[in-house]
Amino acid sequence: MSGTYETEQEAHAASLYALQGCKQDMRSMNLAELAEECSGLQLGSYDRRVIEWLAGWEPSTVAVICGLIIRARQAGPQ
Predict the structure, then answer these.
(1) How many Å apart are CA 6 and CA 39, to the nearest integer?
(2) Which of 4, 20, 30, 41 qualifies as a cystine partner to 55, CB 3.0-4.6 A?
(3) Per-residue pLDDT tens for 19-69?
């Protein structure tokens, strides 16, 4: 789920929402995905508000944001 995406369809197919077969509501799945990728990070109340806001976006957008977080962690400090 951390690859680069060329299309929205690729991002959606990689999203936790699509992988789970849409068994839960989109917002809950998105929030779980974002929370997983942000685990271990110190978050402020505004950070959490933005994560909640992002959870309302379509799964393809959340997959891209999570992919960026993963790749930034892998790249390390520049």
Answers:
(1) 27
(2) 30
(3) 566 656 888 889 999 999 999 999 999 999 999 999 999 888 998 999 999
